[in-house]
Amino acid sequence: MIGDTGLLNAESIGQHSKTISEVRSLRLKKNIIERGRFIIEGKKAVLETLCDKDFLPGIKYIVLSDKIDFNYIEKISFINSYKYVKIYQISTELFNKISGDESPEGVLCVASIPGRVSAALINDNQKRLFILLDSVNDPGNLGAIMRIADNFGVSAVICEKNSVFEYLPKVIKASMGSFKNITTAGMTSEIYESILSEVKKEETAVVCSDNKAQITLSAVAAKIKTGGFKKVFLIGGSESHGVISGDIKNLCASAKNFINSSIPNYGRNESLNLSVAMGIFCYEIAGAFYSK
């Protein structure tokens, strides 16, 4: 049993409950989309989500293992004042079966997918930096890029249709809480048209990561710093194949200011992991773009 269930008023449920059935189903993209809900798992991620006043209303319920430690219960006991957050308690054995982690920490919550409008961000008049991703198949890569985007002031991360779904549990976990702070969305016709409209403008730059490009990233950063751009789109593709999407290739071809750029290679490796490469691109470009 949980150390003091009185702190949380947790309701005990078993493996045949509708809640457990839903948690199991939310490991799949089609069910996440259909239900409009996703899983956040792990002590740190759940606690940070509960402490986020903007995100808290979207939490539908919390599931705790009966072996969760008392110190953690004390940390989340404040949620008793929010009657719309239901708390369920299950056995450790059952939690381990429904968890997506190799070493489950005994806590997860289910939340509604936030209603964020990427197209509106793209078309507004604010100075904004965006990341476009093609062929990102590794959930850990996408989650890491979300963290990078959060750190460097990126307004939105847009994933082409051939990429991993942004609300899969492994993506959310790898984002280490940045899913709350950064708008991430799959490419839609509306988003595509918004980007296409922007890249045709003189004040927009499109920078594509290409390890064969002759222009170095530092040279591109210098151009961004002095170019007076209001929008910059950073494009990254898979480590092995680069950008293969017809839509993204068309965006590059339509751009008024398109630059293929590379990260200098002083060693003998062929390429960098996409999230590592995007981290370096964001460091260079964001520093130049947002500098006064």
Would you mind describing this structure in some detail?
With about 290 residues, the protein is an alpha/beta fold. It is built from twelve helices and eleven strands. The strands form two sheets. The protein has a six-stranded parallel beta sheet with strand order 8-7-6-10-9-11, with helices on both faces. Strands 1-4-3-5-2 form a five-stranded mixed beta sheet. Strand 7, helix 8 and strand 8 form a beta-alpha-beta unit. Helix 7 packs parallel to helix 12 and helix 10 runs parallel beside helix 12. The mean pLDDT is about 90.
Radius of gyration: 21 Å
Terminal residue distance: 57 Å
The CATH class of the largest domain? Alpha Beta
What string gives the helices and strands in order? EHHEHEHEHEHEHEHEHEHEHEH
Number of helices, where a helix is a run of at least 4 consecutive DSSP H or I residues: 12
Assembly of the depicted chains: single chain
Q: Approximately how much helix is present in the residues?
A: 25-40%
What is the CATH topology assignment of the largest domain? Alpha/beta knot
Largest sheet: 6 strands, parallel
Q: Mean pLDDT, as a whole number?
A: 90
Q: Structural class, from secondary structure content?
A: alpha/beta
Number of strands: 11
Give the neighbour order of strands across the main sheet. 8-7-6-10-9-11
The CATH superfamily of the largest domain bears the name SPOUT methyltransferase, trefoil knot domain
